[in-house]
Amino acid sequence: MPFFLVTPELYKIRDEFLDKIRCSASYSFPPSEEFPLSSLYQDKGMMFSLLLAHTKTGEKKVLLGSSGMKNIPGYVNPCYSKNRMDEVLEKWDNAIKESKSDEERREMSTMALKEINSLFQFSTLYKDKFSLLDVESAKGGSGTCAGVKTINTLIRKGYEIDAFAEFFVGRENENYKEGLFYPPCRERCEEIIRKMLLLDYIYLDESIAVVNKEPGLLSVPGRGEDKKDSVSLRFRLLFPSAPENPACHRLDMDTSGIMILARDKDALRKLSMDFEERNVHKVYEALLEGKLEEKEGIIDRKMRLDVDNRPYQILDDVDGKEAKTHFRLIGYGKINGKLYSRVEFRPLTGRTHQIRVHASKCLKHPIIGDRLYGKREEGERLFLHAKEITFTHPKKNELVTFTSPTPF
pLDDT digit string (tens) for 94-105? Predict the structure, then answer.
């Protein structure tokens, strides 16, 4: 699910918004005959977004966004300069009208779209800028969604987010019902929001977040300025009031998949204890080199750090710590003509590099792309992904499961 955070206060402010536009018969602030509410019921309706935030001094802020290209009073600014956009649209509209052939019109339309996409400017939590030219999934309407506008404004102003969602107003259809909260659409918004927030959020509430970590990103900051970038640091840029070390557990830098982060100390304490007591259940998927003959089993071999070759881990049945991993063969395939085995792993303990060591040293089939316990070709990733996690929610006290599709 794209970024989405609903609280009781969000419902209250949405209701106040709906009351205002119904009383005024206009969805602009101040009311205007240019934006009659009736038009939303005659046409196809409109998505709006509400984002609740606060400043560093605790002052509450409400950001209201509207979808589309209209410049509506009372809403956050679009993600482009309106004056510059008007100039570019007029320039290309005139040029296309004066073109002499269909081929020339197609070429001009392509050039026009490229320039228009370059005008959309978004900010990341690191204050870097990018445009729609940097968004692979960009298509018509990208960058004009209500949610993208409000998140972009939040980042530029440096507020801390408290709640966020979109809602629909107007003639209902099979996809949208008036007043209900929705996350931003996947089709046009997901990649833009992920780039802005620097993380792929699977789930978010007032106490925890579940994210899908990309390969090559540290879970927590390492030593040195060049190793600060991490899931934890990126998370705290959006939630500065979260614990200094919000990660409830870690994934190896080269591993992708699900991570849990805490937004408060109580949630962090409870989840950390659950991990320590092995009350959290994780499922991984990996591609192993060659053909694994064994269909299923449990690997039970102790491990420890190789103190002379950090961070390398070794098997040690005498001085090592207990390490157990359940594995199940899913099937076979080929990459670049080379046979691989797709295997599901369920670690029953949580040792560093446990799955990687057990695959390489016990099953004798290293994970493809493992630069420590196997080999890695240039440009290759580690084919290990944390695809599922089950744990007890620290506030709701109920068992929850989150999944992340394996990307390979």
Answer: 999 888 898 999
